[in-house]
Write a structure and sequence with these properties.
235 residues; alpha+beta; Nucleoside Triphosphate Pyrophosphohydrolase; seven-stranded mixed sheet; two-stranded antiparallel sheet; 7 helices; 26% strand
């Protein structure tokens, strides 16, 4: 796969394939173990991009209202610079599980200590989607990209703050649902991260069939059936 990516760069210089990097990811669903590809090259070959995202939230003990820590992507990132994300997220590297991925990312991006995250994190299932690459998102435009995100939640205490690590984000903000929805409607949220946020609201009973007329469609869209294997045992 590394040789194929190298040849692609050499023979198709017009393709927007990012320079080679050491960031390689397992190809989901392959029957051959340890087959990896550069993450930025996966979309060129129709390969599922898999990642893990963490929602970090705070509960008001008096009202029960939830607020959410979200991150603003660095303006120097090649993909969706300056847009808003879930608190923590990243691609699953070769040799690690989704949980190990999010534990690593939580410490690298937000300074959340491994022991605390292992003890208090909660798995929230998956979000699956298919998107079309656009201008400003990095890479080639107009490609069909399937995505698989493993979702996790972490509740922290009121008054705790997060610190920016390694320059992945320009900062963190603690916001309510209405403020985040406003960002989404104004295309300020990275689309797959917005899906993870909406999935949280569905799972926690904040968006329901009683308060959202498109509830059933939203639920289906968050868990699209991908026309590719996601595990070797899938049939």
């Amino acid at each position: 796969m590394a040789e194929l990516c190298s040849l692609t760069r050499a023979r198709n210089p017009s393709l927007r394939l990012a320079p080679a990097s050491d960031e390689c990811f397992l190809i989901p669903g392959t029957f051959i173990p340890n087959v990896v590809i550069e993450r930025r090259a996966a979309e060129l070959f129709g390969i599922i991009r898999s990642g893990a995202h963490l929602n970090v939230y705070v509960r008001d003990e008096t009202t029960g209202e939830l607020k959410y820590w979200i991150s603003k992507r660095s303006e120097t990132k090649s993909v969706s610079p300056g847009m808003y994300d879930n608190c923590v997220g990243g691609g699953i590297s070769s040799g690690e599980s989704p949980l190990e991925c999010i534990i690593r990312e939580a410490e690298e991006e937000a300074g959340l200590q491994e022991k605390r995250v292992r003890r208090e994190i909660r798995a929230g299932g998956t979000v699956t989607y298919i998107e079309i690459t656009e201008e400003g998102k990095g890479g080639e435009v107009g490609l069909v990209c399937p995505g698989l995100i493993y979702v996790y939640d972490l509740e922290i205490r009121k008054g705790e703050t997060l610190r920016v690590e390694e320059g992945e984000a320009d900062g963190f903000e603690l916001l309510g649902k209405e403020e985040i929805q406003h960002m989404m409607l104004n295309a300020q949220f990275k689309p797959n991260c917005a899906s993870v946020m909406v999935d949280f609201w569905v799972r926690h009973g904040i968006i329901t069939a009683e308060n959202e007329r498109n509830y059933a469609e939203i639920c289906q869209s968050l868990h699209r059936a991908l026309p590719f294997r996601t595990t070797p045992a899938a049939v």
